[in-house]
Protein 1
Amino acid sequence: MSGYTEEYIRQKLTEKLEATHVAGLKPPEMDTKTALPWVTIVAAGLFLRAAISLHSYSGQNQPPKYGDYEAQRHWQEVTVNLPVSDWYRNTTDNDPLYWGLDYPPLSAYHSYLAGLWARRWHNESYVALHESRGISTDQHKQFMRNTVLLLDVLLYLPAILYATYTVRKRLANDRSEVAEWASLTLAVLFPGQILIDNGHFQYNNASLGLCALAVVALLERRTLAGAVLFSLALNYKQMELYHALPFFFYLLRHCFTGSNKSSTVLERLTAGVSRLAVLGVTVLATFLVLWLPWLSSLEAAGQLVHRIFPVARGVFEDKVSNVWCMVNVLVKLRNFPNTTMALVCLLCTLLAVLPSGLHLLLQKASTIRSFLYSLAVTALGFFLFSFHVHEKSILLVALPVTLLLPLEPLAACWFLQIATFSMFPLLHKDGLTVPFVGLSLISLVNAALEEELKTIHAFSQKTYTPEQWAGESGP
């Protein structure tokens, strides 16, 4: 009666199911053809990370405070030996001048678990109170390096692969397999993250992995899951504030634009307020669970906030490629009060990032593509203008740029190379010059090869008439 044949209906249903499968973003079926490249990319990423782990680290054999390696180890010592209430307090056993814990609670919990691992399954001397300071044995170095590699395996690499894959499937126009493997490979082999976490020694892979999963959740329209994941990232490292405004504006807009357009203004407003309330309660509940041990008194909570926002440290750290480091060449900013500079930095940062955030909130048709670009722009604004920026903070800009690899392959690839180069003074100080050069060359050669393969692939897919062949093959 409808005029459609059974075969036509079956074909349309099949197409619809395939489209739904892509929209649901289920992981690709792992047959031999697709599994091998994924395994190869992950294996290459882990091999390079393990190779960099053999080199020196921040503060190696440099008393009295050593470096970031010792800071992370000392936090394990503090968390496994002191009660939770003393983790952020100045006590006789917790001197804040010797690497006082200054990351949010989730990072402290991670230090506690790593400290328990060291004490129970390795060597109690790794976290012995006071006596373990400056420990630098080969066995301890292997243990510490393995804690970073474990997070790479369990969190960062799956997150960055899934996020890059999702962005490409959702938004990229280039559907070739070569383009897919190119973006995934470049994301996994980004030299900056490898050199800082597996060389210099930090756990940026935890907060960056959580943030990448939060982006995926928003791509899949799972806003509450995205809010929880980003709250976890923010509670691991406070520098995730670099990404906070785009999340805030995107989720705020989503609350008030998800209603049925046939509803009345009052109904849409009521539904939006209801969604915003649920979102707010979800975020607050996440924070409450993580901050619970310090909410018994205002003094304890205030001390925690004071530790994670140390205004007294000054406007920037060492040789940072941001605005204040350049201005300091002409005007010595350290001569100004820290509170004054903090306010100046806050004002300049807001002026730099608010246009992007307001565009995300107020544009006629907000898209996840706009959200990704806003993440990159806002993070870069924070890096250039905010207070007490570290060299390593460029990794927070590099994350959204990495996710833009499927959309802006050339610009993103070069930005990641420049971001790595901007950290060279820090890496050189840590004795990581050779790994820096090696990883940079690998990344550049890989990018060049991928571009060549994409060109060959595009050429092979093009069809020619005999006349075109004659015209293009002539002198």
Protein 2
Amino acid sequence: MGFGKFQALVLAYAGMGWVAEAMEVMLLSFLGPVVREEWNLSPQDESLLSSVVFAGMLIGAFTWGFISDRYGRRTVLLLSTLLTSGLGFLSALSPNYLCLLVLRFFVGIGVGSGHVFASWFLEFVPAGNRGTWMVIFSFFWTIGTVLEASLAWIVLSALSWRWLLALSALPCFILLPFFRITPESPRYLCAHNRMSKATAVLERMANANQAALPQGVLTYHGETKTDSITRTPEDEHLISIREKEHTVVNALCSQSGVTDALRKLLSHNLRRSTLLLWFVFYASSFAYYGIALLTSQLSDVNRSCSSDLIFELQQKDGNLYKDTFITSLAGLILSALLVDWFGRKATMCCLMFACCAFLGPLVLHQNELFTTTLLFGARACGTGGTTILCLYAPEVYPTSVRSTGVGIATAIGKIGGVVCPLVAVGMLRSCHQMAAILVFELVLLLAGVACILFPVETKGREMD
């Protein structure tokens, strides 16, 4: 039935979820310094405020993925939105540092559901142009980043950080009134043998897109112990599901848990993809947040470490916001042009190696213009590579463990986000710029090799 009005509405809803996540992550850049100044916090307490959010996102990424595969995508869309919006708003009323710390941790858990929004959207998109639409979907992250930066620029100068927290929770509140019309993923419904509800969703899609529902019936294909798909004749499992059969399937689903999901992710068919995805998600997150920190840290480092001040990167806030937008847009355009042409693996590999090449000259001090150009290219390639990785992972896994698989990989990626400041800030602050850049080079180089080793290319391939 193609990509029509129905998918556009799903895109708008899921995209707003990513706007909310991007705003909460970007918020960390502005919250720490103002709270530290108001409550006289130590630098360690300021850092902990960001760390607890990432810790919450790590837990949330795995937890929401498992809940999504077991109880449905819509369940996660509702619960995570309620958690993020409610506690995000309450954190604006925090009376002290400890209360703020606890509330932001739970906001991090809610924000960890971002990958479920992405998987839910992709399960409605036709295979032929799934890459292009995922890139378009990723643009919502850029919108959220720029929106939060602009909001902070205005609010912090006129009001206070409490208003910033409250206003940053608004995108999640906007989602709540529209939840009732959001459809469950028909792929999830089919995987759980709920064919009548899956057909109802497809009929809604046909009506919205003004297209004819194809002839035929939905059939349920059970999974064997060898993780292969059992192809049964159409007349064995027609659209009319017997109550007994439905009960048996639900019983089997209820008995499956985290252990079974992990067993399937590490089964013979998926083990190589899973282990490589874990590493690439870690490396991608490590590099993505690391390059952002390099941009803000290099100027201070070179003032303190270089007696002749070889260069300085002095950017006004407005220029920083503009550069964030331009580099993100450049990365998305780059990935959009390549992902459905060269394929997922080749594009990810090329972007990882290109990011590595842009960072290479920074092992030595460079002049301001050259450094800015190199960081621009590195951020653009890093954004593009991360975008395609978020597309590739849901395409690799079957519906029954898609959100769990992507959730675990995303959680491992968050570890990279936590570890990278030790390199980007720690090594740079101790005047070891060359060592810091070489660590990023090594991680990106290994990530590029890992992309080459992915066992499957998913371009144009139907989701399992």
Protein 3
Amino acid sequence: MDSNKASYNAGQAKGQTQEKASNMMDKASNTAQSAKESMQETGQQMQAKAQGATDAVKDAMHNK
């Protein structure tokens, strides 16, 4: 009886450890995805600002 209980407890602990590891991997994946999206957004903003600056220079040259 005691060995069955010990085996059951070991199985429970293993399952909980696997679940925690899985949750940590999910969190890491979500964090990586958020960082990727943030970088894409920053890149798009920089691209828009560069385009705006280019347009401003073109306007200034045409208005001379």
